[in-house]
Each structure stands twice: as structure tokens, then as C-alpha cells.
Amino acid sequence: MGGKMIRQANVVTDRGSRYAVAGGPISGRAGVDAFLKTLKKDKKIAKATHNSWAVILSDEGPVKNDDGEAGAGAVILRMLEREGLTDCLVVVTRWYGGVHLGGDRFAHVVTCVRAFLALWHGQRQGANDA
């Protein structure tokens, strides 16, 4: 299931921390690994403090990784479950700005996933209109 990677930089900035989001269709765990490898070819992404992600694989079920941002993968996964979105990986990237954000970081993860979903649905709608 090859597809276009959707990326949005600078979704949220708070107390020095910056957030971005990327995502797109994948196939299986190998697709997750390939997507992450491609994404991290961008040196800015590779050097980020956290690249938290989640996906619901049609053949394996839910898979997530917090990448050190405790609970972030679960937040992403819960939003994907609500959308009923399978085989679509979402990665929220955070560059730590030196100030702990506490629970606000979860609101920022939600904002990033919402931004991705808006782009995802917009892309799908555009494909249906073509």
C-alpha cells in the first residue's frame, strides 16, 4: 500500500518546544519501518527529541511507540481508533525546548493528530473529486 507521505511542520510551539506531524498509508510492520526510515532521512526529524507514533495494522492490530514521550503513542492510537483508520501511520515529532510541559504535551499531540487528519481527509476528498 504505497502512498504519499503527508507532513506538516510547526503545528504547535509552546515554551520552546516545537511539534510537527507526518503520516501516510503503510502495509504491515515492514511498512512502518520503511516509513520511519524515510521520514528520518530528514536530518531535522532524525535529530528531534521524540518521534512518537501509532498505527492500527489490518493484519496485526494496534502498534505504538512513545519514543520517550510517555503516553504519546497511546494518545495517537486512541485518535486513530476513533477515526477507524487502519494501515495509516501517524508520527508526532517534538523538539524539546528546555521546559517540561506536563499534561499540556498531550493537548499538543492531539492538535498534531487533528492537523494530520484534516490533511488526510482533504487529500482523500480531493482524490474522490478527481
In short:
With 130 residues, the chain is of the alpha+beta class.
Order of helices and strands: EEHHEEHEH
Overall 3D shape: globular
Overall number of domains: 1
- Uncertain regions spanning at least 5 consecutive residues: none
CATH fold node name: Ribosomal Protein S5, domain 2
CATH C-level class is Alpha Beta
The tally of helices reads 4
Helix content: 40-55%
| CATH architectural label | 2-Layer Sandwich
Structure description:
It contains 4 helices and 5 strands. The mean pLDDT is 92. The chain has helices spanning 28-39, 43-46, 72-83, 104-129, and strands spanning 6-14, 17-25, 50-57, 61-65, 88-95. It starts with 5 loop residues before the first strand and ends with a helix. It has a single domain, classed as 2-Layer Sandwich (Ribosomal Protein S5, domain 2). Strands 1-2-5-3-4 form a 5-stranded antiparallel β-sheet, sandwiched between helices. α3 (72-83) runs parallel beside α4 (104-129). Helix content is 42%, strand content 30%. It is α+β, with helices and mostly antiparallel strands and 130 residues long.
Keywords:
130 residues, five-stranded antiparallel sheet, Ribosomal Protein S5, domain 2, alpha+beta, globular
How is the topology of this model organized?
Elements: E1 6-14, E2 17-25, H1 28-39, H2 43-46, E3 50-57, E4 61-65, H3 72-83, E5 88-95, H4 104-129
Antiparallel strand pairs: 1-2, 2-5, 3-4, 3-5
